[in-house]
Specification:
By secondary structure, the chain is of the alpha+beta class. The protein is built from 13 helices and 13 strands.
């Protein structure tokens, strides 16, 4: 919340100072060329309401804001690059402003840059934040969360502009924490499956053997031993399910395709529910990390659970498309659907399941979208770049 307030205040402050710095107004509010000239010479701008604003002071505020600030003109060239941008990237305003190759310098990967620009164009008028990884002048990689302030605050001469926060260190710590959590989950799953699961299997076999041995001479004891064997066997199944839940891709050697196929088959096998199908498109090799595979699986699992619980669908489809540049996961149903304007942006956006899917998509620098309508049907889609290194994310 504090971060959003800072962004909003910086945005309003920037727009106010920029628009007021454009011309000098007389007390009547009408500009004159002589007034503009003298105003620039003195470095002052007169507000229509009376108070004067020192243009040099306002420029100092823009440059000194503790956030990155950039702007693009209609030709796609950067026309604003403040001091924080210089500090984070190492590129000076002289090197960036008006340079037709500036984006190539900041985002040298052509596919990544194209993905980023497509997303920016698609959501130019939306109030959203996006996380992008740029390459600084010293070749280090910086992660910046950009806020599309320009969708709410229009500035003459700027097609779009954003305010950003350097979250490189925060992202590194988040990824380290996630990796530690995943590693611990895998360890516990292994101990459950290979340790406790094997011991319970042994107990079940021992009890069944003793029951057979005493079947003729001690009928009651044999009966109790058979019950013990059955209970132990059920415990083995429960233990394996717990292990699979903690590390679902472990049993499939980290194959997302196999894990999703089993997820669909397992849900279809349960009586009384809708038919769940899985299909794969594309022949390219998946290059994403095991952690990214796990996040995609969990997104599919959560979206499927939501469809089974709330949609009243007859059919749910899980689709995975892998091409050379992108991986796209889709979960669609033919259920009731809902008003996304109310459910996604309203109270349901605070639901744990929905927020968890967003967080998982952000963790792999992915793009999560949910489309639905009250006439029926819902589509949950997560798209990420097919690469080992991180990519972009938007929320």
């Amino acid at each position: 919340m504090a971060r959003r307030m800072l962004i909003a205040r910086c945005g309003y402050c920037a727009r106010y100072m920029i628009t007021k710095s454009e011309a000098k107004y007389t007390n009547s509010g009408s500009p004159s060329s002589s007034a503009r000239s003298s105003g620039r010479e003195r470095g002052r701008v007169v507000n229509a309401d009376g108070p004067e604003i020192n243009a040099q002071w306002t420029q100092g505020i823009l440059q000194g804001m503790p956030v990155l600030m950039d702007a693009f003109d209609a030709d796609g060239r950067i026309v604003m690059w403040n001091a924080q941008c210089e500090r984070v990237t190492g590129y000076s305003a002289t090197e960036i402003i008006g340079n037709p190759h500036a984006l190539e310098m900041l985002y040298p990967d052509a596919e990544y840059r194209t993905f980023m620009l497509e997303e920016a164009r698609r959501r130019r008028h939306d109030d959203y934040s996006s996380v992008w990884e740029l390459t600084a002048k010293d070749a280090t990689r910086k992660t910046v969360e950009w806020f599309n302030v320009g969708s709410r605050l229009k500035v003459p001469g700027w097609l779009e502009w954003s305010i950003g926060i350097d979250i490189t260190e925060r992202k590194r710590l988040e990824e380290a924490l996630q990796e530690a959590g995943s590693r611990e989950q895998r360890r516990i799953a292994s101990e459950l499956h290979d340790g406790l699961g094997q011991e319970l299997s042994g107990l079940s076999l021992l009890a069944a053997g003793l029951a057979a041995e005493h079947a003729h001479n001690h009928a009651k004891l044999a009966h109790d031993l058979r019950q013990l064997a059955e209970l132990s066997s059920r415990s083995v199944t429960t233990c394996r399910m717990l292990a699979h839940g903690l590390s679902p891709l472990r049993a499939h050697r980290n194959s997302l395709v196999d894990a999703l196929m089993e997820l669909a088959t397992d849900r279809t096998r349960r009586s009384g529910g809708p038919t769940v199908t899985f299909s794969k498109a594309g022949s390219a090799e998946s290059l994403i990390s095991p952690e990214a595979n796990d996040h995609l699986y969990r997104i599919a699992q959560e979206a499927l659970n939501n469809a089974l619980k709330h949609s009243g669908a007859h059919t749910v489809q899980i689709r995975l498309c892998i091409d050379r540049s992108k991986i796209r996961l889709q979960i669609s149903d033919d259920g009731r659907g809902f008003n996304t304007g109310l459910n996604i942006k309203g109270s349901a956006s605070h639901g744990m399941g929905m927020q968890t899917m967003r967080d998982r998509a952000a963790a792999i620098y992915g793009r999560l979208s949910i489309s639905s309508n009250e006439q029926g049907g819902t589509l949950v889609e997560c798209e990420c770049l097919n690469r080992v290194s991180p990519g972009p994310s938007t929320t």
